[in-house]
Each structure stands twice: as structure tokens, then as C-alpha cells.
């Protein structure tokens, strides 16, 4: 009897040694078996880049919509629209056709009225993207593009304003874009990154300026290259200039996909580096390059297979369509390299170089 009592006394009760506040919980050092695994870097990259792709394509479609409507008016109007987007102020010294220069001048005089709104939209969109709001541009363009299509039809076709109508439509939409972005910010952001306007707002700009100047020079050099191509095409003739304009527009339309992927990769890599997860940053970079290479290869196949079907979508002029078809194979090969270079540039930006 005594022995049994002694053994009983040496056996502790489970409830007496268990912390009742954590009873039934999983140890904090280990993940609970029912918790879902964290999303992979590839899924995060695809999820964040998808709205960027759609948004940038819709934004670039403003130019495409104008060209589609103006291209039906004639080759001179299409060529003038091209020069309005891609020319220096001394275009008349290089383009022998005075009528095209006059139309281009009229287009630019109206289009420049939308410059302030477009600049505000681009800066605000980049600020929201840095905060992880990749859908801001998408929702803004979904709001503005239907209005743009209606205005372009109304001014060009219904009011018969021609190239001036296309310019009026674009200038109006450019000034509407920041309002759409403001509505998105009011509905979907907390406002923590929108401090009040004080004297501190105008201090410590130099680090930002040092980062902005190389980017500015890079963009300007790229734009000048396209402008020179347009001016040289204008020396060859109206048909050549129209074909070059439509091909550049088409290539720019396609490039928005790897460009959007590069923005998402840059933001995601910088976030991983900021949180000290270099392994996940390298993983994001690898996935971005793989996606860009796959997209570029697929694009080469599509362009080579449908090179004769693509030009009639943009113009009804047989001469311009034939010129475009003859150049599409060369452009197809270039798109593979362009996609890879665009994404790798985003990776380099993400690591702060």
C-alpha cells in the first residue's frame, strides 16, 4: 500500500505542468501544419505584373486608336500624325512635303495642351507602383479608354475634324488621366504616402535628382533614336513613313508586356533585398528572365506565322501593307532580344544599379 502511494506521488499530472495559456497551440518556432505555404516568387511576379501589362497596353492604345482612325483618312494624315509624335522642331528642314508638316504642326499645337496632365499621371502612377499598387494604371485606363474611343470617333468621324479631332481627343484624355488616378488613390490607398504640402517637401531632393538624371538621359537617347528613324523614313516617301510609323507603334505595343514585367521584377527584387532575403531576390530575377525569354520566343513564332495578316489590321493601303510585311521577319527576331534586355534592365534597377 505504501509502495503504491509512493509511485503515485512520483507521477506528475499532465495538467499541472502544462501552460494553460498555450495549451493546444503549435510551437511558435514551427509552422502550423494547416497553414498554407507562402506564395512562390513566380506566382507573386505573375500576379503583380498582370495588371501592369493590361494597364500599359491600354495606355499605349491611345496612340494606336488615333492611328487607326487617322490611318483611314489617308497616307498624308497618317504620316503627319507620326511626325507629330516623333519629330524635332526643325522637321520642315528635313521633310520635303509641306502639307504633312502643316498637318503635323496643327496636331502638335493641340496635343501639347495635354502635357501637364500626362506628366502628373506618370509621376503619380510610379509613386503608387512603388507602394505595391500595380492596378492603379489599369483601373485608370479602364475608366478613360472608352471615353477616348468615343471622343476620337465623335471628333474625327462625326464632326469631320480630321487630324485635329484626334489631337483634341488625346489632349482631353491626357488631362483626365490624373483625375482617374486621384479617384483610385482615394478609394484604395490609405494616404500615408501623401503627406501635406510643407517646406520639408522641397528639401533633400538631390538623391532623387541623382537617380533621375541617368534615367532621363537614357529615355531621351532612346526617343531621339526613334525620332531619327522617323525623319529618315520621311525622306524616302509617304508610304515608307506610314509603314515605319505603324511598325514602331506595333513594336511599342508588344514591348509593353516585358516592360511591365520589368517594373514588377524591379519592385519585387528591391523589396526582397530590403527585407534581407537575397535568395528570394535571385529567384525573382531568374523567373523574370525565364518569362521574358519564353514570351520573346513565342512572339517570334507568332509574328513569322502571321506576318501577312498583321498589316491589314492597321492600314487599307496595299503599298504600306506590303512594306510592313517585308519588314516583320526582321522585327520578329529583334523582339526576342528586346524582351530579355528590357527585363534585365528592370532587375538591375531593382538592385539599385
TrEMBL record:
GO terms for cellular component: membrane. Residues 1-10 have a biased composition (Polar residues). One of its GO terms (molecular function) is xenobiotic transmembrane transporter activity. Residues 1-41 are annotated as: Disordered. Residues 28-40 have a biased composition (Pro residues). The keyword Transmembrane helix applies. It comes from the Eukaryota. Keywords: Membrane, Transmembrane, Transmembrane helix. Residues 11-27 have a biased composition (Low complexity). The chain crosses the membrane at residues 136-161, 167-190, 211-234, 246-267, 288-306, 326-348. Belongs to the multi antimicrobial extrusion (MATE) (TC 2.A.66.1) family. This is MATE efflux family protein. It comes from Venturia inaequalis.
Amino acid at each position: 500500500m505504501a509502495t503504491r502511494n509512493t509511485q503515485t506521488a512520483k507521477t506528475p499530472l499532465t495538467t499541472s505542468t502544462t501552460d494553460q495559456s498555450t495549451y493546444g497551440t503549435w510551437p511558435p518556432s514551427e509552422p502550423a501544419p494547416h497553414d498554407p505555404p507562402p506564395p512562390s516568387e513566380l506566382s507573386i511576379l505573375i500576379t503583380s505584373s498582370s495588371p501592369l501589362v493590361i494597364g500599359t497596353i491600354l495606355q499605349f492604345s491611345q496612340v494606336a486608336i488615333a492611328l487607326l482612325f487617322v490611318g483611314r483618312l489617308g497616307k498624308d494624315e497618317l504620316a503627319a500624325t507620326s511626325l507629330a509624335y516623333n519629330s524635332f522642331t526643325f522637321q520642315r528642314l528635313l521633310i520635303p512635303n509641306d502639307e504633312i508638316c502643316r498637318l503635323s504642326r496643327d496636331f502638335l499645337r493641340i496635343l501639347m495642351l495635354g502635357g501637364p496632365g500626362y506628366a502628373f499621371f506618370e509621376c503619380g502612377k510610379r509613386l503608387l507602383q512603388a507602394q505595391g499598387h500595380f492596378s492603379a494604371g489599369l483601373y485608370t485606363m479602364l475608366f478613360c479608354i472608352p471615353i477616348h474611343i468615343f471622343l476620337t470617333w465623335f471628333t474625327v468621324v462625326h464632326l469631320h475634324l480630321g487630324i485635329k479631332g484626334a489631337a483634341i481627343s488625346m489632349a482631353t484624355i491626357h488631362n483626365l488621366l490624373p483625375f482617374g488616378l486621384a479617384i483610385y488613390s482615394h478609394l484604395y490607398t490609405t494616404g500615408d504616402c501623401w503627406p501635406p504640402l510643407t517646406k520639408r517637401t522641397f528639401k533633400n531632393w538631390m538623391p532623387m535628382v541623382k537617380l533621375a538624371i541617368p534615367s532621363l538621359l537614357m529615355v531621351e537617347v532612346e526617343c531621339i533614336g526613334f525620332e531619327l528613324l522617323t525623319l529618315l523614313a520621311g525622306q524616302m516617301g509617304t508610304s515608307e513613313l506610314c509603314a515605319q510609323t505603324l511598325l514602331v507603334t506595333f513594336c511599342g505595343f508588344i514591348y509593353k508586356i516585358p516592360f511591365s514585367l520589368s517594373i514588377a521584377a524591379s519592385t519585387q527584387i528591391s523589396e526582397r533585398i530590403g527585407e534581407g532575403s537575397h535568395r528570394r531576390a535571385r529567384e525573382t530575377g531568374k523567373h523574370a528572365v525565364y518569362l521574358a525569354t519564353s514570351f520573346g520566343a513565342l512572339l517570334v513564332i507568332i509574328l513569322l506565322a502571321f506576318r501577312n495578316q498583321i498589316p491589314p489590321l492597321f492600314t487599307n493601303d496595299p503599298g504600306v501593307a506590303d512594306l510592313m510585311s517585308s519588314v516583320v521577319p526582321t522585327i520578329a527576331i529583334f523582339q526576342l532580344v528586346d524582351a530579355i534586355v528590357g527585363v534585365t534592365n528592370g532587375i538591375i534597377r531593382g538592385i539599385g544599379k
